[in-house]
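Tokenised fold entry reproduced for everyone:
>
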Amino acid sequence: MKESDLAYAAGFFDGEGSIGIYHHRKKTCKSGWQNGLRVRGYNTNEMVIRWFEYNFGGSVHKKKAEANRQQGYVWNADSRIAYQFLKQVLPYLKVKKSQAELALSFQERRQPTHRTQGQLGMVNILDQVDRILISKLSTRNNKLQYPMNEETI
């Protein structure tokens, strides 16, 4: 992908995107639940959202119009696709850069090589690290850093 396209994607995502951790059912997990990385982008222009789907993967769904709001489109990418997207746009992100770094750290801990060490203690430590990363990501999603200078941008 061209550098200009990655810069465009990062700029759009900084303004219209979100990074989060979702909690979902997974029967193959001991607890029956698993946390996963998700990125989303929203816009009323379907072509822009389809561009993300075409270039990065994921899926698109329609969001119905509500009172005083137009119909929109949401691009979703989970786990590995979200990870690859964030890795590609990370150098160009300004507003969401620190969130993306935390999300990448979280997803790297989810890779099978980290989970299959065969030692219960190692898995417990990684689960604790995941909780810390989720907490930090949630905090950063709710607090913008002002003033925005070269260090925060």
Q: What stands out?
A: DSSP finds six helices and four strands in the chain. The first strand starts at residue 17 and ends at 25. Helices lie at 3-16, 46-56, 79-89, 97-110, 112-115, 120-142.
